[in-house]
Amino acid sequence: MALIRPPIGDGVEVFFRPQGIAVIGASRVPGKVGYMVLYNLKSMYKGPLYPVNPRAREVLGLPVYPSILDVPDPVDLAVVAVPAQAVLRVVDEAGRRGVRGVIVLSAGFREVGGEGITLEKKLIEIVRKHGMRLIGPNCIGVYSPSTGVNATFFDPNRQGLPGPGPIAFISQSGALGAAVLDWAEARGIGISRFVSVGNKADVDEADLLAFLRRDSETRSIAMYIEGVSEGSRLRRALEETTPVKPVVVLKAGRSDAGARAAASHTGSLAGSYQLYQAVFRQTGVVPARSPEEMFDFALALALQPPMTGDRVAVITVGGGSGVMASDELSELGLHVPEFSPETQARLRRVLLPIASPRNPVDVTGSAVDEHMVESLRIVLESGEVDAVLLIPYFNLSGITDQLPDKLAKVLHEYSDRRIPVVASVTGGARAWSIARRLEKVAGIPVYPGEARAARALWALRLYGRWLQYIGEIQEISKA
Amino acid sequence: MALIRPPIGDGVEVFFRPQGIAVIGASRVPGKVGYMVLYNLKSMYKGPLYPVNPRAREVLGLPVYPSILDVPDPVDLAVVAVPAQAVLRVVDEAGRRGVRGVIVLSAGFREVGGEGITLEKKLIEIVRKHGMRLIGPNCIGVYSPSTGVNATFFDPNRQGLPGPGPIAFISQSGALGAAVLDWAEARGIGISRFVSVGNKADVDEADLLAFLRRDSETRSIAMYIEGVSEGSRLRRALEETTPVKPVVVLKAGRSDAGARAAASHTGSLAGSYQLYQAVFRQTGVVPARSPEEMFDFALALALQPPMTGDRVAVITVGGGSGVMASDELSELGLHVPEFSPETQARLRRVLLPIASPRNPVDVTGSAVDEHMVESLRIVLESGEVDAVLLIPYFNLSGITDQLPDKLAKVLHEYSDRRIPVVASVTGGARAWSIARRLEKVAGIPVYPGEARAARALWALRLYGRWLQYIGEIQEISKA
User: Fold this and answer.
1) How far B156 CA lies from chain A's nearest CA (Å)?
2) Is residue A262 part of a domain?
3) Residue A430 sits at the chain B interface (C-beta within 8 Å)
4) Least CB-CB distance to A183: which of B160, B253, B428?
5) B273 in the same domain as B314
6) Are the beta carbons of A418 and A385 closer than 8 angstroms?
7) Residues B323 and B245 in one domain
8) What pLDDT digit, counting tens, does each position of B317-350 carry?
9) Would residue A418 be called left, alpha or beta, if left means φ above 0 and alpha means ψ between -120 and 50 degrees?
């Protein structure tokens, strides 16, 4: 029997747009994995849902089937939450039933060594035999809010779940993925697809990249990686993805101590970080150094065009923030050039006498909304910059909660210029509630502090440089 | 007439513990500076409050005095919110009335150049003549929550105000200071004293350091500096402060672009950052690179003892976080050593079979509170580490909101070991509400993400090294 591996990305869509879902190992006991996953699916999923358990009749008000073989149509996805020893049998049954995708949450496979390795090999054989795709084992599941798929065992009383949005997130660590989603929900960041890849016995990052680069809901892709066993496979997938969509990777295990920790955690050979760095550089990946930074970058890349040059205009209510922004941008190789005399004169006409029309434009703490709005307009019109960093202070009296809508209007007028705009906000809950509106109505990603906003611009510049570079290559090959 | 500058730090206490406060330029118009400052003082200050305004009889229910000369006892502090042209006269009257400290909020002095420079010189003459101390001009005021002094013109509907706490904060930028306080309130960080130093015509960072190092409410000092005109004065003050209390400095204007922005902002000569770096290194200052980092460091230094060695134990619920923490710590020159076989054996006895007893201790996502608590106990007892980084995941089911109290108990038992403990939390609102309790009941500073927690340990280690170094110097001079 030939165990043919499907082409990269083949058949992965079923995990995100299933016609019907069976939960094998559905449990009546609250807190158990087989209960939580059914509970979560039932809360969101609009399609038919089939709990499977030979020892139950009803769970959460749904009729239970003794075996997946008894489940009626349509069913093309099975979520498996039975002990490791029972997994092979139920996955084989799922294959016989015509299921196309299985998510195995159960642990006790390659990650435990010994018998677990054999068990995982047999699991792959069964999956291949039926031509199915498998996510896991030893994973926390799949979350796709727009299609109602919450095939995870998150505790809904403890775990925040982001709404639909433009960022796809692939995580090799389940618990970390969950914690990061909890943070993303609080931060107001939306997710297109989340996949905890677990042991990657079948579906891996390469498969998911192939799907995501064609996925209309995904505008940027964030990945947390500890180790990859098939480097060239990932490399090829990255090469084919970054010209279409930006990919941000957080590679853990950079240091010796980190690599050792990765080996105990996912059994990954973290590999030389230098090697990963080289691959990222050669494939146009934007590397991130922490989960927050990964999402900072993915958000900027999802909402804003890449930067086509190095020049940044800073428009700030607080002079000190302008100083810090200039420092951060300079240290990242971006420029904060003085404006031409003409642009300075135009700015001077709309600003307060105490304001500074150079760059940073310091509208001062006495400013009102219009000072920011008109400065933005003049700067976008000037042709002298490739990006804008806005620093409003929502704790001051002159800057109102109408500012986001006013800025959105100006950005809309100049959208054809494709000049990215990001913002930095320092402040408390009220400031952030207005800042969220900047993201929502104006599509301006907002960062806590100048350093993170500057880094986000750096990510936009790095990706912009990559696109310019591969465009150049294509020109040359055409010639 | 000799204009004698008072000894460093002399007479500064009045700004934080006044017997009675006059508000010169108190206004009946909501939104005006002279209204806001009176409003803010009235909301917090328990001592006598005297609005002064020749054209009003009553403001905010308080009787108004035509001149400070008419104000009854006790009054030793005056807050001045009149136009620049009127400042000299009212400050002179305050001096004649016996006031010991004046806070001049008004702008229009050195920062505007020309006439403003002359005006500021005359202001200093008047202050010296009466032997008063002056904060400002061109500042946002003073905030000392424990003594009810909110002599700022913050808008209470927009501006969050932190409660009392162990961190003093001196800011050269008013607006930035306000925004950072707004953030600190939301973050749950408490403040002992906040001073917006403005133009530093009289009281400067050196004066404030001299006061703060003897101030029992202050346990660490955070400073935002753009430029200093009297470097040797600041240097001496730092030298005398850091052996007693940790000082964290955020120096803006590191780059050319930043220095140029600082020159337009506060008229500061930012000076060579290399020079500042050298002074910080030679005086034991902990340098920070952003406002968030400044408070991250100040919080760790206020709540925890300095690190006396480089070895860190990581105790984590999520393996991925352990990998990232190891990376971050390693890159900062801190070590995550493997534990001795004895310690590993002790850990193995209390942990789940799937957990890792090496370092990082990975209690796994299936852990309950006791796995973290007992791991902490064993690690503190081991003598094998100089600090502990805890990474609880409050979004998982096993880790409860009782964990902070349980950890506090263990820390209390081993407090004589003087091993600092910090935590990293990734997650949403619920996770953070429990995390706050870690700070409150266990005194463990909590950071969003491993990178910032690792940097906080780096700050504790840097300060620990400094204390070891100067202790060494003292030993040598004794010998």
Assistant:
1) 9
2) yes
3) yes
4) B428
5) no
6) no
7) no
8) 999 999 999 999 999 999 999 999 999 999 999 9
9) left
